[in-house]
Amino acid sequence: MQNYAFVVHNLHSIRVGVLGASGYSGRELCALIAGHPRFSLAFATANAQRGTTLRVRAAGRVHDIPLIAAEEADLGSADLVFAALPHGASAEWVGRAIAAGARVVDLSSDLRPGHGGIDHALPEGVPADAPYGLPELFRERIREARVVANPGCYATSVLVALAPLARAGLIAPGATIGISAASGVSGAGASPKLELLFAEIAEDFRAYGVANSHRHLFEMRATMQALGADCDLLFTPHLLPVDRGILSTITVPLTQPLDDALAPYQAAYADEPFVELTRDLPALADVQHRNVVRIGARIPTGLRTPTLLVFSAIDNLVKGAAGQAVQNANLMFGLDETAGLHR
Amino acid sequence: MQNYAFVVHNLHSIRVGVLGASGYSGRELCALIAGHPRFSLAFATANAQRGTTLRVRAAGRVHDIPLIAAEEADLGSADLVFAALPHGASAEWVGRAIAAGARVVDLSSDLRPGHGGIDHALPEGVPADAPYGLPELFRERIREARVVANPGCYATSVLVALAPLARAGLIAPGATIGISAASGVSGAGASPKLELLFAEIAEDFRAYGVANSHRHLFEMRATMQALGADCDLLFTPHLLPVDRGILSTITVPLTQPLDDALAPYQAAYADEPFVELTRDLPALADVQHRNVVRIGARIPTGLRTPTLLVFSAIDNLVKGAAGQAVQNANLMFGLDETAGLHR
Amino acid sequence: MQNYAFVVHNLHSIRVGVLGASGYSGRELCALIAGHPRFSLAFATANAQRGTTLRVRAAGRVHDIPLIAAEEADLGSADLVFAALPHGASAEWVGRAIAAGARVVDLSSDLRPGHGGIDHALPEGVPADAPYGLPELFRERIREARVVANPGCYATSVLVALAPLARAGLIAPGATIGISAASGVSGAGASPKLELLFAEIAEDFRAYGVANSHRHLFEMRATMQALGADCDLLFTPHLLPVDRGILSTITVPLTQPLDDALAPYQAAYADEPFVELTRDLPALADVQHRNVVRIGARIPTGLRTPTLLVFSAIDNLVKGAAGQAVQNANLMFGLDETAGLHR
Amino acid sequence: MQNYAFVVHNLHSIRVGVLGASGYSGRELCALIAGHPRFSLAFATANAQRGTTLRVRAAGRVHDIPLIAAEEADLGSADLVFAALPHGASAEWVGRAIAAGARVVDLSSDLRPGHGGIDHALPEGVPADAPYGLPELFRERIREARVVANPGCYATSVLVALAPLARAGLIAPGATIGISAASGVSGAGASPKLELLFAEIAEDFRAYGVANSHRHLFEMRATMQALGADCDLLFTPHLLPVDRGILSTITVPLTQPLDDALAPYQAAYADEPFVELTRDLPALADVQHRNVVRIGARIPTGLRTPTLLVFSAIDNLVKGAAGQAVQNANLMFGLDETAGLHR
Fold first, then answer.
1. Could you tell me which residues are beta bridge partners of residue C293?
2. pLDDT, tens digit, for every residue of D161-170?
3. What is the ipTM of this complex?
4. From 3.50.50.60, 3.40.640.10, 3.30.360.10, 3.40.600.10, which CATH number describes the D154-316 domain?
């Protein structure tokens, strides 16, 4: 059976290229591709590490992947390209991949709604309205897309938690939604910065990018507006001394009191394979290495304003990046949405 | 001069007893007493560890402190007793210490405003209106007190950050103040619980005691009311994989926009030795092992409601417990408020 | 194919019980069983947690396992029992499982060579000469065994590294082999001890059980003797602030200089599925969550005594406990030795 | 009295310059100088950070230190210069400082015995035989020195542990001393390297610089020879996921069995202010932020070769670098050896 599966795999596999394979998201993508029943790796690029080998583990096996420079990649050999390049540098390569005939999932902020707060012209051939790759909210548009803008990690944790409230008209108009979020350091990328050294991060905790200056805020705002919510967002990210995981603690002023904190979520996400509801409080340990959003909610006592307190936990590299990118790609290629993903 | 100081110390030293010396706060108290220019240790109790020795370090030296059972302590030999006993068990010992003629700083929630949410009768002789030991807010009452209720760690970080806004009438009436706070695990005490094991805490992050169920909420609410603020509090604590430190991220709806986020703090705390204002964002690493509250603030953009975002960092065992207890004791005995404390 | 595999699974599955499922090894066993192609769980016991549910993740799915008391377990319903009980308590249950007709892999030290240094009589029916479950050394005896004594974690890392040298007669007679090993805290078990709290372990490192007092030394000594090596062992374990993983750094005086540090390992382990040789230095990050022993070796310069420096890394809960137990069980039941295990 | 002390301090203070103040050792030096009763800071250099301010804490107070470029420093304004520059770059600046009339403590390996294994000519005026700054071994030579070579961190932990055995003739001639040491990451310096990122270090443990290739080995070997020991050293350093601290686990073949493992240390170090002997096992948590070497020892059972197992713990940035540099400077200027240092 192992052999037969191997043959099937080779006959029908979808050829996948990864641009930017040496970052934390890129490595996670390579591992997911290596363990995917229908994907096979066409190429993996990493300019600074070209000529070396990337070792990933998937499906209980070790895989050694040769890294090449982006310029050396045969984009036309890929049915699908994942672009995991820095913000600002990605759009050009998305354009090249499209021109070469590939479908693209772009993990940068370049194509996302709000464009990460930067006003820039897109290269020719890159659509200005690529669907925003949150399958739980925009599944049908993703299925038909040639290019998908994969959401930011914080935005994923926040929007999956807020969308059911927005769609149900539960968010008090004009009110401020307070979002206090905390992320593991892998979210800052695999770049050698002094402030990310072990000795600087261990035993510390601090906010950064506060007062609404973080890149992910723009896609959150644009998406909330698209969902019909007339609300303000106050987003405050913090840096945790852990490797991976995001927990967002969200305070939502409501139009009316709720009887059951989870009711809006049960209605919206009953059939979602990657949304997990809990009566407990979600923790990073619950979601690490899994492609899920885990949501808990409580109705606080003693407040005059009807309010919902929502907790949303994800793995920033999986559901917040590479896992969601594969989920989007599964949809784009008509595969089982859960193929190659861990729940 | 060293010799002379030593003589002064012996002639005029204030005799101090510690009830509950084996917990994290109790150990910190013993270290602060050992390094204090005017305090000398009368006794240190720890029932389960009685007969053993507690090693603390202070002023560059090692001190070995014999631990006895609380029942063996000669309460009358102490001018001052720090009670660092479990909530519920403390009030009785406060009464015994008062009866023996000592002044008392109680680190439990038993005497605090709101009584930690528990409705209990105080033992005879224990005042129902012990001053709440936040010197930055209630210095004069503390100076004259026989018994002081030392605040909770979260409450310290939050109330020092909110009081100037409350006193200046800046807090929007009826609004909800959102408090997302995160604490190192020493805040949970030195008790052998499965959920506090290294393997459970490392690489994790989660909320607990949410939806306004945490003990410290009651003293926060009562104090905000005493300060004249008509507001609701939504307090959400989280558990960090660090040893010590609390960061509170606080969202305050205002009556009017502010020009300068720090202005209310500069006015209120210009002369405070233990409040530190920063234009940066305060981090745990800035305050560990120091008796300070470090406050930063920002005016968020893009909100329709005038709002202030305040960050308040403390060391939960120092300014959040033992250091503040010593600061209170310094005031009660007419000493320099900063004696024996680190800034 | 997925469906067909499922049918096969149900028709031919081997029923497996776990005694002691709430410890770290027990949980890992339950996860491995849940993800095993031929095993299905008969029962999982945990006296203190009986009536609750254990959540494990395997093969990308969540599994909720009911926990019962050991006395409630129908031992006869299991083809195979994994005993993950405390040392001293295990032998009795091994006897009961044998009497009920099950095969047993015992993860305690009760049946291991040297018996963990404790001289105790085994219950009736428990063999005094159960094979020592290191498949790389004793595969044939394991295949035919009714009961296997699963090795200790440290012993696994050390013996897989030393055996090829012993069998090749390379170890200098009468010499002392120095073993400095370091383990993550999960090796100390899921028991609520003060010294295992996060605040005690983080930022610390220390030796324990030194000067040849550790339980695993006895099985190492007895096995080295069985392998024909006339050497002394000096074993010094240390406690690391990490969750899982053991690195053993081993100094071996040789009978003669080696040309290639890895040569003895290449000869011995060419066909071993779970031994990984590296020209680099093995690290915990290389082996976590994998059922492998990763070995590196160097020939130190500047020494008058021919010496080999060997590094051996394992995951203490996988190859050091649960994974090796499954590997042994695979052999006992004539399955593919790698079934259900991650490389 | 505070005022009087301040006057004394200004009248008689020794002016101290720091070359390389932005590294971890340099920052620790600045903090120790700020808290020293007789030192005052003349300048602090850090080329890349020039124009910025370094914040350190000492004696319970915050100190903000302006950083200048090394070329801007008035070397002649300093009575004493601490050179905390990279290996290879330091000797030149030591020469310049000597020429300007300052005494120097050099924290690099450039002047140490063995020269870090690099054969280089020293600049004119730099003595080839600067005393090796281990006060416990070479106090008298240090007192009279114009330039002192401050030892490496690993070398400090190892040599303080081995010297009493060497001087007592207890080390078996020709034997190999096995040294397995582990260091916190601050030992690798404050440089932005990918392999020192939090996400790379946390949850990992590995050896590096093995098989006798580490720079500190050369000063260890040369010093052991100077102490009359005819032994080989096998030094294996490891990298710990902690900020600071070194634990060396050392195996010493002896000429004869010992009755009491600590006896050689009690004889040698009875009056040493910074050597701490313990019947327990020393841990990093015992020595962090203190200028001590903490030594424990055990006589292993079951070995045919008489052997001593020694554990030696230090803070790599204090007794392993900046603290020891101040200790040496105290001796060079005829001050109390313990001035400004924490025990």
1. C275
2. 999 999 999 9
3. 0.94
4. 3.30.360.10
